[in-house]
Design brief:
single chain, mainly alpha, 14 helices
Length: about 250
């Protein structure tokens, strides 16, 4: 696993000419960024080896999270400094509440999950921690705070989605379509827009603000890993001590 970079953004740029703020965020988030984006769960989606019970756990947790993600996008739409930014975030919010919701309902039916199960499911501890960090950063923090958390969540999915899309298409439609949703040009363009938005804002932040958003990105990466791990194993993983005091 890669080791974390502990230096400041200016130090990182000096040592690695041509790199961007987003590159520094990833370097600061290791080894959690790689652990999340390369988790065995994500690879099992692409090669079709996903156990039904693991994917059912995952879908139920992710379904409970959709409302929190929608709330996050709402906060960011309100705080975005430019109309173009509000437009991009609003368009993604509309997509989230239409196409993805239909996917969940069809997938639950195929996996034999009754509506009474997913409609009344309570979030697990890992999902709750993930959602709390995302929503609180967007709602109580700055635009940069919320944006960097959204960036981590969506960029991780684009990373594994593009990778798994290179494999032969899995037979189960709910695996194939989940890859499709996170490897299509529209989603890639949206994530690249978030990256560009963060790269425009990040260098203008104070040193303290840069360190804060880097910590948020690192914390989100650890929670993303924990989310996949909980679905894969059926057990709630312990977070490193550095995040338990936040």
């Amino acid at each position: 696993m890669p080791t974390p970079y502990d230096g400041s953004f200016p130090q990182f740029q000096s040592a690695h000419p041509g790199t961007r703020f987003s590159d520094w965020l990833v370097a600061r988030a290791e080894p959690f960024w790689t652990a999340a984006s390369e988790h065995p769960f994500t690879r099992a989606i692409g090669d079709g080896s996903m156990p039904d019970e693991a994917y059912t756990r995952y879908l139920i947790e992710d379904y409970t999270f959709v409302t929190d993600l929608a709330s996050t996008l709402g906060y960011l739409v309100a705080k975005a400094p430019r109309m173009q930014s509000k437009s991009r975030l609003s368009a993604f919010l509309a997509l989230l509440t239409s196409e993805e919701n239909d996917y969940f309902l069809r997938s639950f039916k195929a996996l034999g999950v009754p509506a009474s199960t997913y409609e009344t499911a309570a979030q697990g501890a890992t999902t709750r921690a993930f959602a709390d960090l995302l929503v609180s950063s967007a709602g109580e923090g700055s635009y940069a705070d919320g944006l960097v958390c959204l960036l981590c969540a969506e960029w991780c999915y684009l990373t594994w989605g593009l990778r798994e899309a290179q494999k032969p298409r899995p037979q189960a439609f709910y695996l194939a379509e989940w890859i499709d949703l996170h490897a299509v040009p529209g989603f890639e363009a949206f994530v690249n827009w978030i990256i560009d938005e963060m790269n425009g804002i990040g260098p203008t932040l104070s040193a303290n603000e840069q360190n804060r958003v880097a910590h948020l990105f690192r914390h989100m990466s650890a929670l993303e890993f924990a989310f996949f791990e909980a679905a894969w194993t059926g057990k709630t993983p312990d977070l490193p001590e550095e995040f338990r005091q936040i």
